[in-house]
Design goal:
With 397 residues, this protein is an alpha/beta fold. It contains 15 helices and ten strands. The chain has one domain: P-loop containing nucleotide triphosphate hydrolases (Rossmann fold), CATH 3.40.50. Helices cover 46% and strands 16% of the residues. It is globular, with a radius of gyration of 21 Å. Keywords: ATP-binding, Nucleotide-binding.
Length: 397
């Protein structure tokens, strides 16, 4: 019998310069789920490191109750570890589900590192170690600071040129270290989403407004960043940057006269924060199917595209664990890899194909049957669809 609970881990990397809102974002992601008024009939969110969870909750409560901003992370990369625990989990149910628990590893690259030199060899080693931790991520968020866009209104290219150049330089500085062992990377974030943080400062904007501004003001810089990332990769055509966009707002801020400190922070008014889990779990599966349909991708790269895509696809389709186990148990055996991937392709495509009314029907059916895993994942997929309808997100087609 398989180990219980069976865990599926997803990784997401978040990049943003100092003050762009990364710490507020992760606090706003976690904090509301710990309030007694929070209602979710499918799952609970748990911090795997209690001390880390307490600090995030403390930051959230201080923002909510005293309008106090959290202290920025300046000195080291942090991986926030969360578990999405399905409700009514039992050993009997576990024998039927591809997995019981979705874990989210949220990798935070300190903003100070984009604009300051390392203070000695120890900090340089920490920076390179942080890059190593980021390698497992399928998705990376690049934060564009909404406040900075206001500060540079009319000449946004000045800010954006500096922003993308800083991202590019940090990748170039890590390049030799990342490539030293095995050359071009098979596993590395391949979906880079450009996200407007503090989007509440631009109330009239849709995600298309944000995209159009970036293309008008910084298309060349975005292309340079994409080329730099592509230079790290095995099969660089399996990469998207400048094709996926997102509006993010962790809260609604009422500022004191002078505009430097908030007088009130309304954490109930959020935009895009609840998309983090769907982005980390569903988007890589969809992108893997797109790339496999468009490109001839080596098996070693396919195996690392969207970690867990096979298991997530099986869960979306309501497949039983024993069926999944039988189908996937030989993936790691090279002599059977081609046959296994051939069998996987239609399963992945079928999981991605469900959309619109059909997806809503599947979700409703899963809820009626108390299939919490399938309900959760189909809801994630519905949330991504709704974000596009609401002009909050725009994804590569």
């Amino acid at each position: 019998m398989a180990n219980f609970p069976k865990v599926q881990e997803q990784n997401i990397a978040v990049f943003g310069e100092a003050g762009s809102g990364k710490t507020v974002l992760v606090s706003s992601f976690y904090g509301p789920t710990q309030e007694s008024a929070y209602q979710n009939d499918l799952w609970d969110l748990v911090a795997l490191q209690p001390g880390q969870g307490n600090r995030l909750l403390q930051s959230y409560l201080e923002m909510r109750d005293t309008a106090t901003m959290p202290i920025q992370n300046r000195f080291s990369g942090i991986t926030y570890q969360f578990a999405v625990k399905l409700k009514t989990t039992s050993l009997r149910e576990s024998t039927k589900r591809p997995f019981d628990e979705l874990r989210l590893m949220w990798h935070d690259y300190p903003g100070e590192w984009f604009t300051t030199d390392p203070e000695g060899d120890e900090e340089q080693a920490r920076r390179l170690e942080t890059w190593g931790n980021l390698l497992k991520s399928d998705v990376a968020l690049i934060l564009v600071d909404g406040q900075k866009l206001l500060d540079f209104r009319g000449e946004e290219e000045r800010y954006l040129t500096s922003l993308f150049a800083n991202y590019r330089q940090n990748i170039l500085l890590a390049k030799d270290h990342l490539l030293a062992k095995n050359g071009p990377l098979v596993e590395f974030p391949r979906i880079w989403i450009l996200a407007l943080s503090k989007s509440d400062l631009h109330p009239g904007w849709t995600v298309e407004s944000f995209r159009d501004l970036l293309i008008r003001k910084s298309a060349g810089e975005m292309n340079s960043l994409r080329e730099t990332i592509a230079s790290l990769l095995d099969t660089p055509k399996a990469l998207s940057l400048g094709e996926d966009f997102l509006l993010l707002s962790s809260a609604k801020f009422q500022m004191k006269p002078g505009g430097y400190e908030p007088s009130e922070i309304d954490l109930t008014q959020r935009v895009g924060v609840d998309l983090v889990l769907p982005l980390a779990s569903i988007l890589p599966l969809e992108r893997r199917v797109q790339w496999q349909q468009q490109f001839d991708i080596p098996l070693k790269v396919v195996d690392k595209l969207a970690d867990g895509a096979d298991v997530i696809a099986a869960a979306l389709l309501g497949m039983k664990f024993k069926t999944v186990e039988k189908l996937f148990k030989n993936v790691a055996k090279t002599n059977k890899a081609i046959g296994v991937f051939t069998q996987l392709t239609p399963i992945l495509a079928a999981a991605v194909a469900a959309a619109g009314p059909k997806l809503k029907e599947i979700n409703a059916e899963a809820r009626d049957r108390h299939d919490h895993l399938r309900s959760m994942l189909t809801q994630f997929k519905l949330d991504l669809e709704q974000s596009v309808t609401d002009n909050v997100a725009l994804f590569r087609k």
